Amino acid sequence: MKKLCLSICLFIGTMHINGQYCTLGGPSSNADSNVESVILNGVSGGINHIGCPSQIGVELYLNESTTLSAGSSYSLQVDFGTCGGNYAGVGAVWIDFDQSQTFTQNEIVGTWVGTPPALPVLFNVSVPNNAHNGATRMRVTQQEAGTLPLNPCGAFQWGSVMDFGITIINGLDCGAFAGDDLANAIEVPSLPYQDTVDLAYCYGNQNLVYDSPDVFYKLLLNPTMQQVSVNTCGSDFDTYLTVLSPQGVVITYNDDHELCAPSSMLSFDVNDLGFVYIVVEGWGNESGIAHLEIISSYVGIGTLDQPTVNLYPNPVKNKLTIASQENTNATAEIYSILGQKVYSCMLKEENTTIDLADFQNGIYIVLITSEKGINSFKVIKE
Fold this sequence. Notes:
The protein is mainly β. It is built from no helices and 27 strands. Mean pLDDT is 85; it is low at 1-18 and 300-307.
């Protein structure tokens, strides 16, 4: 697919963490065409709104709300009318069922074309089974002299844009869903790493590059890593990849990679980052099943001859012995699997013993550095 290039300003500076509904559009005049009434009664509560006199901009009536149950249908009555003269126009209603804080094409409840005065329109609100539980919004828009499809974030001269509160029950429980944002990023346990995730369920739009769901991963880097490669090859939709620093600043990004377009692929140098966030999302507003793979090349592997360095016993319970012929200006550093340095010493003798009795059980990386280079060993502490 041919892509429209995004302005690079979207990627400079700190990434926005939380998405938000567009509220800067709507009419610039409060004359003439206007939604005269909105009526919707759900499981509890109800919306019974009178629209005149009209207002400019996006009108927020979130305290006027009702509760809808996933898998059920309800009758919505909207009077696309006027608070002044009668002029032809169009209207539309959306409900943000996936709580992505955007109103997408597949969330349109219904549309209207006509000239006031006209009879109120009855829409059938069919709440999908996979609607997300919790508070969300319904947007009702009327635009004089407009054409379908309407832009839910559009600005125009005459008409109205109204937001109402909706609460979904008996749908998907997506509270603190793993990977939905930076705070709940999925931690990558080790490399190589693979994951398959359906972005169409529970994931909101937090990474504001595109109006699409996104999933966040947190990758802890250790000193043995030299370069990390990430790809979404094999995903069933058009993907977009972003890598963020711990501060949320964009390190690199990719849309379509020539090896697996329209999927994405990128690489970045580890340097002294500590950890990074990897964000998978769709191009435009696309979503679907994403396949993520993360691999790394390692610094120094094989730069020393293996017979010159030996670590034993491995696994180890108490004392670890490093037998090395490279003891001239050689050092040993031990890192946790999270990339934290937990020990270092000089190798002054051919056999150096390190007491690991107080170390927590788990996997550690031992780096042996000498004039000939660096070698890396994985040690298991039991």
